[in-house]
């Protein structure tokens, strides 16, 4: 059902360009609605949150019940199957171990002129994590956002998760508990983002907001960007698989559908130099779609956005992959390490047939919050450094200022900034006076 | 003329809160105008650029003259004073040496389960640097943006600089040349940002856009964010100085005015535990303002946004500084290294009386593109990593998948994502079949 292209076909470039530029999301223009919600929360604080939560989530709250208290969290967690809890723990341990290696170190050195230079890393004071409610309320996303923040040393970690009609996912609370989240609020939508950015009487503001959400949440994050830091604006998920002859078509079909089942806007693409494998995977996908529980979603995604592209060779596949800059790139080929060196743009690379992308969604260790919609051309997945900031540090000795100051005075003059030049020259003059005394 | 506060006064907290929340910029709402310009450039490409440049910059261009050709650049550079050129070279060398140390290394390791994990860094393919025209057309900013991009290994580096009435700053072109810029276009405003993000027949699109600009440029950057990467949205510049008894009041006054002379919206703040120093600096600023060439701008900034705050001790000054999270923080105290450990939020720290902030604007080495408007709480200055992206890499051995896969299958089931679980389980089943054979 997905589009099938062959790179040697005369109309290939045209068809590929169409696939690359196809819009997968109807981005509803909710900017005005969101701006009004943010203004309301800034003005009326808790009262606005309570009113909006009653309207959108059919939940009657008071300031004292905005937060989910520790005993309610504990009671919910007690309902979680121990095997699920153990799996969550396993995932948390592996994610923590991976992200601990991302912790950068401070640098300082003194150059020949006598300038001591470097930089320091410090965590943000407080971070807020948005967790969607309902179907897309994923405990794995809680771990993927909260653990890097904790590794970074963030002092205060806040989660907002809407609980429409009072329904909450106990595994989400278990993940919050495992990751060391400090506060959980049962609010969602643009109003939650506004509360995190500007604060209310009950919810103190944070410095950085991460986590996925619907169009309202995304628009709200864009609008508060600058007031607080945000992670990227997530689009629909995607996988691109490069496979060579001899790969298992059922596994490839499952990997394609694991992406497609997320969302009808998701995209799954197979690139292969083997036309027979292309046929086999297409057939395997069709067979799988007949029995997959989420076949409606996965089928729509595969029909509307899926693609199988037969290329001349694997290098051409890598070049085409670079134009997609996929969020997830699976290299199911005999020598994935070599092919990976040709793949310049991807959020995450999965090497070899034993590394299904789904393992990376949960337990491999790397983050599953990754750049979508071709933004891997310029963006990276979530990391510990997203919860840190770098402060540059400089100390000039009098000799260093004497050595490099005159060039700065010259440039300040060229830029017409007299006080800049004078602030340096007055110090150079003082040195000269001292040396003359 | 600036506000004077004392931390022990009963109304201090109220006054400080007012100072912290004071808006320094009239952010004109230019979003609609900018959206129309972007749409026009997307639709009509070069023709839109030419028409908008005729209207805003009074420049008649053709597609062939959008770019400034190499011989014109060379002729302009030939007009630059050799001493200015040497100063630029000195600055470029020091900026390059500092940023070379920011180049991160790839990581790869194999954990006890047999998972080979890590990440790789790759540069963006193309970066665009916006350089304002007219008064704020600073060659130093060209170096501060272009050199990190070059250090990162960006393949194609493009500058857009408006040349109203045909006037261009030769030093800006000299800086482009020194930094290795590949293409220079004489266009500006939102239309330049649109061309960089979406491309035209003449200007190929880039992946990342950095550089300062007016309200139109800032709004355009916010609107194209996602399509391309952007640096932060810059607000007016600011300095906060903490000084103790015995510091030179003239130097401190010059450092405060070096910030104030940028822009009437700039902010200069002195914190000191010595009331006598506060008096002396206030007097020195007044004396300086009488003779400073840019006294109108600096005077307005100091009157409307400047502040001198007398604190009980230096630790209290550091705590107040953390609330401002200043772009530039000068520690003119006897032991600046110790005080720096108490300063958690700042874009750049300048240690000791011989490290005037202005030296950092040009020649110290660290970047002068820094987070403004309290965003140092969560953001960092421009760095080499802004022109790189991190791709995570994972390779699981069959044993590794056997060890960690079951936890992923469990979590996929809990999240209702069947194909996720099946993509892992089918591989585990194959292993079991093989081991039974």
Automatic annotation (TrEMBL), chains A, B:
Pfam families tied to this protein: Histidinol_dh
Report which gene this protein is encoded by: hisD
**Which chemical reaction does it catalyze?**
L-histidinol + 2 NAD(+) + H2O = L-histidine + 2 NADH + 3 H(+)
Question: Which pathway, metabolic or otherwise, does it act in?
Answer: Amino-acid biosynthesis; L-histidine biosynthesis; L-histidine from 5-phospho-alpha-D-ribose 1-diphosphate: step 9/9
| Residues holding substrate | 237, 259, 262, 328, 361, 415, 420
Q: Which organism is it from?
A: Paracoccus pacificus
Q: What is this protein called?
A: Histidinol dehydrogenase
Q: Where does Zn(2+) bind?
A: 259, 262, 361, 420
Q: Where is the active site?
A: 327-328
The note on the cofactor says: Binds 1 zinc ion per subunit.
The family assignment reads: Belongs to the histidinol dehydrogenase family.
Query: Gene3D superfamilies given for it?
Result: 1.20.5.1300, Nitrogenase molybdenum iron protein domain
- Please provide the record's keywords in A-Z order: Amino-acid biosynthesis, Histidine biosynthesis, Metal-binding, NAD, Oxidoreductase, Zinc
Single GO molecular function:
histidinol dehydrogenase activity
């Amino acid at each position: 059902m997905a589009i099938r292209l062959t790179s040697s076909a005369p109309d290939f470039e045209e068809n590929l360009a169409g696939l690359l530029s196809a819009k997968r999301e109807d981005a509803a223009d909710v900017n005005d609605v969101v701006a009004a919600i943010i203004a309301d929360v800034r003005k009326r604080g808790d009262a606005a949150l309570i009113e909006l939560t009653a309207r959108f989530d059919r939940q009657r709250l008071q300031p004292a019940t905005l937060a989910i208290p520790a005993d309610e969290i504990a009671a919910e967690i007690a309902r979680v199957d121990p095997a699920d809890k153990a799996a969550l723990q396993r995932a948390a341990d592996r994610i923590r171990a991976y992200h601990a290696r991302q912790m950068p170190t401070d640098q300082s050195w003194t150059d020949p002129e006598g300038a001591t230079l470097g930089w320091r890393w410090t965590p943000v004071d407080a971070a807020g994590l948005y967790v969607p409610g309902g179907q897309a309320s994923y405990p794995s996303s809680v771990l993927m956002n909260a653990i890097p923040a904790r590794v970074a040393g963030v002092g205060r970690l806040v989660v907002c998760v809407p609980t429409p009609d009072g329904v909450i996912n106990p595994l989400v609370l278990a993940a919050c508990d495992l990751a060391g989240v400090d506060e959980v609020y049962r609010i969602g939508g643009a109003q939650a983002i506004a509360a995190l950015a500007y604060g209310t009487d009950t919810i103190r503001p944070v410095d950085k907001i991460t986590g996925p959400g619907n169009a309202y949440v995304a628009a709200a994050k864009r609008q508060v960007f600058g007031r607080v830091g945000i992670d990227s604006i997530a689009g629909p998920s995607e996988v691109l698989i490069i496979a060579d002859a001899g790969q298992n078509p059922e596994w490839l079909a499952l990997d394609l559908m694991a992406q497609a089942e997320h969302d009808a806007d998701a995209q799954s693409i197979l690139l292969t130099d083997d036309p027979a494998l292309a046929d086999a995977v297409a057939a395997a996908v069709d067979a799988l779609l007949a029995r997959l529980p989420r076949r409606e979603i996965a089928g729509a995604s595969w029909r509307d956005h899926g693609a199988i592209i037969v290329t001349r060779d694997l290098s051409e596949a890598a070049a085409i992959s670079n134009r997609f800059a996929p969020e997830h790139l699976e290299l199911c080929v005999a020598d994935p390490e070599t092919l990976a060196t040709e793949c310049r743009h991807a959020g995450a690379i999965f090497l070899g047939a034993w590394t299904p992308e789904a393992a990376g969604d949960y337990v491999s260790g790397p983050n599953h919050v990754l750049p979508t919609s071709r933004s891997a051309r310029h963006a990276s997945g979530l990391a510990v450094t997203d919860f840190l900031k770098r402060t540059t540090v400089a100390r000039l000795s009098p000799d260093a200022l004497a050595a490099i100051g005159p060039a700065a005075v010259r440039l300040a003059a060229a830029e017409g900034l007299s006080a800049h030049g004078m602030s340096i020259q007055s110090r150079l003059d003082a040195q000269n006076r001292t040396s003359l005394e």
